[in-house]
Specification:
The protein is α/β, with parallel strands linked by helices. The strands form 3 sheets. It has a 6-stranded parallel sheet, sandwiched between helices. A 6-stranded mixed sheet has the order 8-10-9-7-11-12. α4 runs parallel beside α10. It starts with 5 loop residues before the first strand and ends in a 7-residue tail after the last strand.
Length: 419
């Protein structure tokens, strides 16, 4: 497709779709133009010529003059039909729909291969941060040790507002939605679904692992309590929602999305508001940090634009770790150092811990710090109760943990107002 004009059929004209349209209209040197836009609601007023729009998908999918389909809608089922139809008609596709991609990635890879049609989706993971391309091209070897980061701008925005500006969780969520950072269904963000969808995609490009998001250990920020902020501040931590994958000595991968205490020495500590931050570690290059806006119209559109530019050079993902190496496997045979926060004194089954290191309580909340086997978290749901929160400690992954008999540190602590 090099030197060809990209004639684009665009699905969706929301915050990202309109931003992309504006950029392309004002950048003729890109030799790419939106020729037709498929929308759901024709009655809405839009900042583009009326003749550009249609509600009939086939007008884009069956138009041979269009050689690229850009899919930017929030309906995963409809997105799947659009993307698979376009690929089978040998139209290159660019998508930002992480839910759809995570659920169907194995099949989509097979379709790409069968029809030799590019399917790019940088915008589906970290918006303006080029994580997928780097994992594909720069870290295309067996030396990748870990990838961890803040990959959901909405939850990071909410946590910044709640814990630093002392506004309510609900008000912070409303602000995130009004700014265009949060999904139309906010549960996808706050319950960790969006982040685990992204992690499942990154696992494919990082380690050759294809795994359904629902099979990956995860939770979001929905159960965090204001007392958790007090506990974190006492230890000079902040709380972030972090997606993480780490290679164990066994060669298998520890992978999860959990709230995490972040210490000041970490680059992720200062990732605020809608920004994303990703740390990639390899055995030779040590740690590299990627930082940028993870939500919003123009930041996400910038990733779509990057994929469109790559199509001019016939770029496709090669999935080298999946095809040319022995793919890794996700492990459940390791331990996490966690803080479990809850309301009732005997609400948490203490016997499930390999070791309890600290137990603090006041009139509002109990906090247990201890070592939990990941197999326990996967097999049970006591930690998913609405008034129970789980937060992993920095460097909180252990492949083996031999408990040592020590006296447990019990403390009653007073409420400390921070801010």
């Amino acid at each position: 497709m090099q030197n060809k004009k990209l004639n684009i059929g665009l699905f969706g004209f929301g915050v990202v779709g309109e931003s992309l349209y504006k950029v392309l209209e004002n950048t003729p040197s890109l030799n790419a133009q939106v020729k037709k836009v498929c929308i759901r609601h024709s009655e809405k007023e839009r900042n583009a010529p009326a003749e550009l729009f249609t509600t009939i998908a086939s007008e884009l999918l069956h138009d041979d003059r269009l050689n690229v389909i850009v899919e930017l809608i929030d309906d995963a089922d409809a997105a799947y039909r659009i993307v698979t139809t376009a690929l089978k008609r040998q139209k290159a596709v660019v998508s930002a729909n992480k839910k759809m991609i995570a659920a169907h990635l194995e099949e989509l890879i097979d379709i790409q291969k069968e029809y030799n049609t590019p399917f790019l989706y940088e915008a589906a993971c970290c918006a303006s941060i080029p994580v997928i391309r780097n994992l594909e091209e720069y870290y295309d070897n067996d030396l990748l040790q870990s990838i961890n980061g803040i990959v959901n701008g909405s939850t990071n925005y909410i946590l910044t507002k709640v814990f630093q500006e002392n506004i309510s969780f609900y008000d912070a969520l409303v602000q995130a939605q009004e700014a265009g950072f949060a999904e139309s269904n906010p549960a996808l963000d706050i319950e960790g679904t969006d982040a685990v969808n992204k992690l499942s995609i990154l696992l494919t490009h990082a380690y050759g692992i294809i795994n359904k998001p629902e099979n990956i250990l995860h939770t979001g920020i929905q159960n965090l309590d204001p007392e958790d902020a007090v506990f974190a501040a006492e230890k000079s931590f902040e709380i972030k929602l972090v997606a993480q994958a780490r290679k164990l000595k066994s060669g298998k991968i520890a992978a999860f999305v959990l709230p995490q205490f972040m210490e000041k020495s970490s680059q992720l500590f200062n990732v605020k508001n809608e920004y994303n931050g990703v740390i990639i570690e390899s055995s030779l290059a040590d740690k590299q940090f990627f930082y940028g806006k993870g939500a919003g119209g123009f930041p996400t559109a910038s990733a779509v634009l990057s994929d469109l530019s790559a199509l001019r050079y016939n770029y496709q993902y090669e999935y080298r770790k999946l095809r040319n190496q022995q793919p890794s496997e996700i492990s459940t045979d390791y331990f996490l150092k966690v803080c479990i926060s809850f309301a009732g004194l005997f609400q948490v089954p203490n016997e499930r811990f390999t070791k309890i290191l600290e137990w603090k309580y006041n009139d509002q909340r109990c906090h247990i710090t201890g070592i939990l086997p990941v197999s326990e978290l996967i097999a049970s749901d006591w930690w998913k109760q609405s008034d129970v929160s789980i937060i992993i400690y920095p460097e909180g992954i252990f492949e083996n943990y031999e408990p040592v008999k020590e006296k447990v540190n019990f403390k009653k602590f007073e409420f400390v107002e921070v801010g």
